[in-house]
Structures are given as C-alpha cells and as structure tokens.
Amino acid sequence: MADGSSDSGFGSAIAAPENRHLEIYWHGPVPAAVEAVIDRERSSVPIVVKPARHSERQLLHALNGLAKRSELIEVGPSPDAGGLVIRMRKGQPVTASVRSAIADAGVSTSVSDAAGDPVLFSRQDDSSPWYAGARNIFSSTQPSGGGCTTGFAVNHGGRTKLLSAAHCGNDGAPFYDGAGQFIGYAQSGNTGKDVQLIDARGAGRMWDGGVNSTYSKPVQGASQSVAGNWLCTSGSRSGVRCGIQAKAVNQSYGGAYPLVRAERTDGTSAAGTRDSGGPVFSLPSPDNGKVIAKGIISRGDPNTTVGCVGENFSGRICTWRFYYADVSQTLVHYGASIVTG
Amino acid sequence: MAPKLRFAGALVGLVLVAGCGGAGPSDVEVGTSGQLTPSSASAFPNQGELEQIAAEVSKLGQGELASLYAGVAIDVQDDRVDVWAKDPTRFEAAIDAMPWRQRIRLHPAAHAAAELEPTFQRILQDQDHWRTQGLPVVQSGVRHDGSCIEVGTPDPQRAEREFRQRYPGVPMCFSAQADTGNPWEEDRAG
Fold first, then answer.
1. Which of A125-129, B27-31, B160-164: highest mean pLDDT?
2. Considering the domain boundaries, does residue B46 fall inside one?
3. Domain check: are B100 and B130 in the same one?
4. Minimal Cα–Cα distance from B77 to chain A, Å?
5. Which of B49, B80, B108 is the last residue of a domain?
6. Are residues B117 and B169 in the same domain?
7. Residue A132, SS3 per DSSP
8. Chain A to chain B, count of Cβ pairs less than 8 Å apart?
C-alpha cells in the first residue's frame, strides 16, 4: 500500500497514540485491494481513511525538485499530504529563481522563514511572479488609499499578465502590492465587461486561506461557469470564502455585461470591498490541491449587504450576492490562455 | 515480520518523513478570517462531468436545437443536468442517443432563448435611453428556464408599463433594484 508504486494514491499516515487511531491519507479513490488490507488490519488497529490532496509520489516528485536548492533549509510533505511545507535558510532572500521554482512545484505549498514565521511572501506581501488573490494597492506610499486583488495569470501577447477588474483603475495606472512593491501597469481595460490586464509577470498559482495566508495552490486550468456551479472566492481582504453557488450566467448588472450572478447560500459574506479583481474558483474532484479558475470578482449587490469577514475597515461593504466576469469568456475576449501551475 | 507489523512499520516510516515537514496546511493558517479551502468545497465529484454535459447541451441548444432550447443548470446533489426546452419531447428525441442522456432532466419552457435574446440585446443597447428617462436598468438577463427576461430597476411598476410599450409581446419579470452603483467601486487608480 505504502510502497511508493507509481500508481499508488497513498498520501501519508499519522499514528498519533493520543488519538487512539491510525489516520491514512489517500489521494483519489481507495482501491478495493487496499480497502481489504485496511479492513483486515482494523481488527487490531483502529484506522481512519481521509482524502489527501496529493499522493506521496506527487509530493516526493515535487520535493526532489526543490530539495536541491541551497536557499531552502527544509522541504517536506505536510502530515496530511496536503502539500509541501517549505522553510527558507536564514538570511536568504527570496530570489525570483526561488520563487519560480516554488511556483513550478505543481503542488500546494506553504512558505515561511527560518524561524517559521510567515513573513517572506504572502497574500498581503507578494512578489514576482505574482499569484492570484494577492492584495494590490494604488499608491506605494498610501496603503489605505484604495486597492483591489490580483486575478489569475494569463498568457497574452507573448508574456504573462494578470487579470483584474476594470473598475480598479484606468489604463496606465500603476499597481503595487501590500508592501508597496511595484506590480505593473493596468492595460486593455474594458469597463463594459469590467475586466482588465495588469502588465506584470504572473505565476499559475493562487493564494488560499485567510487574509494573511502564506499558503498557495497551483492553477489546474479554467472552465466556463454554468448555473448551479459550486464556487469559492479568494479576495485579498476577505480570504477564501466557499459555499457559493452560481445562479445565473450572461447577466447585465450595473452597466457591465456579461457577468455571472453568484450567492453564498448561507447568507454570509461572499466577498467585499477590495476583493475586486480577485479569483473565483472551484476545486477539482478528487481534490488534488489545485484550483480551477472560474472568474474575476466584479461587484456586489448592495441589496444583500452583510457583515464582513477578514479585514473590516471603515466603509467596507460586503455582500452575500455578487457578480463576476466569467474567466473563459474573458480569455476569449483577450485572446489569452490561463497560466497553469 | 508478520503482515500487520510490516504494514505498521511502513506507515511509521512515512510518518517520520512527513513529520519532518513541520506544520501542515491547517497549521499555517494565520489569517484573521477565512479558512484554507475546505475539502467540502469539492465534495461534489460530479461537478466537472456535469459541467461538460451542460457545455455539450448548450452547444446543441445554440445550434441545431436553437428553436427549442431555453437554458441549462447543473444539480450536483442529484447528479443531474437540468435542461429547459420548448417541446421537451422533440428535444429529448434529439439527445436520446447521447451517452449522457440518463443524467438529463428535461423541463418544459415557455420560450426558447433564441426568442428572448434579441429583445434582451435591445434592452442592453437601450440602457442609456432608460437612464435618461429616469428608469435605469440595474440588472437584466434571460432566465435559463425560458420564462422571461429579468429586469431589475428602482421603479418596477413604471418599468412594467413602459417596457411593455417599447418591447410588446415579450415576457418580462420586473423586480426592484436600487441604482446605487457598484459598492466595491474602490478609489480608482490612475
């Protein structure tokens, strides 16, 4: 079962005596032969089987590519096979080369410094190549002066760029990350569709988790929305919000068209101010630690205002119903393709 | 070594390897809100398949079956693709040979999308006109069940009167929508 054979979905196992059971993390469907072994062993050891985002083989493959890098002091699979946990060697800067290597790992990653502090790059303080879901602001010296969220990276005009919402800025406007580092200039904005590009190098990854997360996932691809889709958002001021369902496609709202109408079904916030431009996504099944790009957060319905989650600064408005630009339609509009990780 | 011990030994070895990695994803969450995407978000293993079926139905519906097709939605809980069409019997005959036929749930529609779409496009083009009339169209779209064109506006009663005059004979559903602009229209850059 755990012999590392090429087709094994084995992710990891945790034998914690205090829990009085053995946890096995398995990627994908558990084969009948493996289930039989587990059932046999259950007569003497309580065993709980849980889904794993990655198989051990996938994690070790990604690990092998990174372990050679002298800048990294530790690279290892997380106990639940959810991804790789990476620590930088003390004093080592996060060079573009390191960041590209992590971006190309193809599995979920969490990166911290030598002391384990998540201060290297994060949703709030990203660096090139930029991920989707990162905070962006309009002034390097006035972080509170407005901002949005970076969208998925796309291939356009021979290089990578980032998607965003057109209402975030006029063409030519500069964008900076949460720490004031220059990202790139807005271009090709289309206010009728509420989409634009940021001319900056992007990676096929998306920030996951809360507003200060250091955890990111690769982008597997992009697909068109249909009514009934279950979705998540990843705005830089709200963090990840799931339990959202697409209700109608090809909608006109507030002068923008075509948009998808989506609602968080429990009536809590789906997204809010300064999440605009950020990712709408779904997860593949089985969950392989990647995300599928679905859209670009556009605008909330002010009739559905609710309390915010994440950052809650003065004047912030969050809604349980919102609209987003479908990513597939946007790719067609720009003649672009999604960047995968 | 007995089979059980071999099994346990292999697992313990893996635990040691995994344990070197430090905190797992659930432990590195330091945000003030939000969680790592929960696995329940992908609790619908059929979503991707249903999306593909919906895409094929939609392609047919915009092509050879355009005179019947109203719209499509997926239902991951029931593992079905809901399709609305005029004359469902004819639509059913057209898709009967498709391998995914058993996952389609057909519903009768009052109108095909192709019947409603031209008027919807006119409404989109007329947005400036309605705004100058003091009757902004905040939201609009063709319902995927083929029942009507939705129109959201601050004064739905007035809109109903005036829209029926300008677009006679077209089914429309009116609702109240405040014209407050995009609440997320942050300070624009540039």
1. B160-164
2. yes
3. no
4. 10
5. B108
6. yes
7. strand
8. 280
